[in-house]
Amino acid sequence: MTNKQIALAFDELANLMELHEEDPFRIRSYASAYLTLRKLDSPLAELTDEEIKAIKGVGPAIAGKIRELLQKGHMDTLEKYREKTPSGVREMLEIGGFGPKKVRQVWQEMHIENPGELWYACNENRLIEYKGFGLKTQEDLKNKLDYFFKSRGKLHLDTALMEAEAVCLFILQHFPDAKAEPVGALRRRCHVVESIEILTTANVPSWVLEENAEYTLNRHENGEMYLQRGEGAKLRMLVCKPEEWGSKLFRHTGSAPFLDAFVQAHPGLDFKNLAQESLVFEKANAPYVVPELRESADFLRTGTPAELITDNHLKGVVHVHTTWSDGLHTLREMCEYTRSLGYAYIGITDHSQSAFYANGLKPERVLAQMEEIDRLNEEFAPFRIYKGIESDILHDGSLDYDDALLEQFDFVIASVHSNLRMSQEKATERIIRAVEHPCTTILGHPTGRLLLSREGYPLDWDAVLEACVKYQVAIELNAHPRRLDIDWTLIPKAIKMGIKISINPDAHSKDGILHTKYGVMLARKGGLTREWCLNAGMDIFAG
Question: In what order do the strands lie in the sheet with 215-221?
């Protein structure tokens, strides 16, 4: 089992125990284990029992459960709580922003046992009769349910990529001379995908799949194969001949609008049976368009922009948390690791004091951290450590800390972490006031969205972008695959208005720094070039 799977097992156990009103101390222990294990760099499967017990917050009992998961693939305690909880009730725990206490209430008091019944109860206005459920709360829950149903069956980009890589590796291990590559929405690097599509030249016989217990063959006809890996993503495999690889790769990558526009722009063109994808563009005498930009017809005439952003363009990593707040690794460890990756600088941005839940820094701790950064800058030169903060945008749009302290930072990322249920007017006013602050450098994860879990709060983007232009504030593309915020569709307008985008990992561990690659994928999809990427430059906060 992966660290992520193990962490999620403890998260589920904590939620189920809270649902059944078990010992609060044990619940907090399991919830804490989830937060710790999901950030862990080293695979738990490779650690000894003593090394696992040495992890902060992991005692002998939790270590034993981790070992149980690694050896047996399940945890007896978790299975016990699953068995005593109806499957539909467990499903309700997956609704973003609808916690175990509320789930217990609708289950025990209203006898609702699945999300469908819950949605119907909201639609019938039955929840408002119960304590803690007013009309506004009921409407908010109905919106959460709509989003929950809409998001089911979809995958985050990182999960889909890992699944596709496993399938391609599986094919190539059996057919070394074949080709296999993801196509469709995944090759276009959409932030969420509904299915994984693999194009291959290997006509994989069913017995190969049947030999591997991980895969279940559902259907194999007309050159297509449908299979599933455990209870995970559904996959669609498309089989083609080697001599038509390029044609098929092109046809199965572009969106319908892109392909329709391409055909209309080149009537009568036969681009079948081409072994390389580039030959399609050459035959059409058309500029090459990278897969990420084949979502619409916008780049058909001009082709791929010069210096479209790549991983190698990023000179430094910005938006990094350490053990000073809620990070897993120390300031020194985060700096050393970032430097080892070849970056020239790092921007440290632990949480500000209002984020008490994340051990946010009180002013005296800010100054102490600055002193440590000064010492490390002397030691690590020419590698540069910038003094930053992720300052909470408070309810009224003001920033955490007084101006005298804010002015001592090299840069400030202003982010919303609370009060996410504002109207568009109030949310926009709040963001604009934060942007207007003279110390704000970057607007962090602007909508606060969590993909497939929580919709972002509504904003008047025209007004927000105009404010960013006026006050010369960059916008973060939060590269964490659960956020990828701002949405890539806003990047072209931001560029046109002269706003720089900062591709930031929002790293809470060393491994989190590697999330920049997902930010680059989405930035490319939005047509971001090196020129308009803030951290593709050097000395970006100098002076």
Answer: 180-183, 196-200, 234-239, 224-229, 215-221
